Amino acid sequence: MKYIRSNFFKSFIILASGSLIAQMVTALVSPAMTRLFTTTSIGEYTYVLSVVNLFYPIIALQYDYMIVTEKDEDNVFALLKLSFILLIISTILITIGYFVINFHQKKVGLITVILSIMMLSNGFVDIIGNYNNRYKQYSLISKTYMARSLAQNSLMLIAGYFKLGIMGLLLSQAIGSLVGLKKQSSLLMKERRKVLISSFSKMKEVLIKYRNQALYTTPAVFMGSFSYNALNIFIAQFYGNSILGLYSMSYRILGMPVNLVSNNLAKVFYEEAAREYESKGSFFNSYKKTLLLTIPLAIGMFIVLVFFAPQIFSFVFGKNWRVAGVISQILAPMFSAKIVTNTLNPSVAIVQKQGYNMLFQILSVIMFIFLVVFVITFKSKIYVFLILYSVVNTGLYVYMSIIYYKFSK
């Protein structure tokens, strides 16, 4: 009962409630999505979206992440200004690069514009989200996330009804990502002048102070993003867009509990663990509480997927999507372990040992390349490839959770 009444648990519930509703909306809309769009269309959409997801998490070089724990208010405003500048510069460069590389593709101009909107809005949300997290505005974060998800899914249904195909799917994500930005940034807008007048010297100071974010965390995050998005690109090229559509639906559904638990609980864990580390020199109590929440959830998810995934996917999404359920069975160990590891990931930022994230991602990329070479050499079927991929990544997630435990002591 004492744990249930704790601020840690209450903060998690506030964040999780909005995410739960948002995930429920996505879950309810998904059966319609599989009937309004073909597996090939969803695969093409996933392929294009992978380009966005490859870069947007790193366009501010992870400096915005330090807004949460920075003690000096002037440094906070400098971090904000630096993050916004990096966001704009990175988006421009990535957009130009995409346009040049895909110049001869159909509708490249419109797709490029959509990509730039999505990267800017997603990057802005991340920066503002960290500022909200600093002041424990969990209710606001929760409500805007819910509104954003509702808008994106509603627009997706409209696009499907009018048979807009891949362009409809992309536009629904781009337009929907803008919902709630004004409300979420209301607190920061009151301090916008302090952000604008933040000096170059102050920005240089925080740039150097938190250089590990750019030198270690950013490459680690990029490699993590590369592992997933390169996987999508590989599946599309080697097995076809239809298989990618099935895989992406499996990943979409399995990602719901991971996002619900990890994304929200990680915010609360980071804030509380950082304060505990500051006062005690360790954050084992926060680590233990988080572990006690995530492990039962991970086990429950694993059991449901292993025994019932094909039947659930066939019933909910239609018989054509039963294969996605089989894929979910294969990926069950990896996603179950991911819930725990992703939640505890802020541990490296707390102890300023971002190099371990780099190590994890390097291992992940190396193993992915090895698996791709193996599959191409032996012309393995998709199930064989995914089994190997799941086993390797499950082991890596367990290894990192052990590392986080050592950091907490």
TrEMBL record:
InterPro entries: Poly_Biosynth_Transport (IPR050833). Pfam families: Polysacc_synt_3. The chain crosses the membrane at residues 12-33, 45-66, 78-101, 107-129, 150-171, 226-247, 290-317, 323-344, 356-376, 382-405. Keywords: Cell membrane, Membrane, Transmembrane, Transmembrane helix. It is a multi-pass membrane protein. The keyword Transferase does not apply. Its main location: membrane. GO terms for cellular component: plasma membrane. It is found in: Cell membrane. PANTHER family: O-ANTIGEN TRANSPORTER-RELATED, PST FAMILY PREDICTED COLANIC ACID TRANSPORTER. This is Polysacharide biosyntheis protein. The lineage of its organism: Bacteria, Bacillati, Bacillota, Bacilli, Lactobacillales. The gene is rfbX.
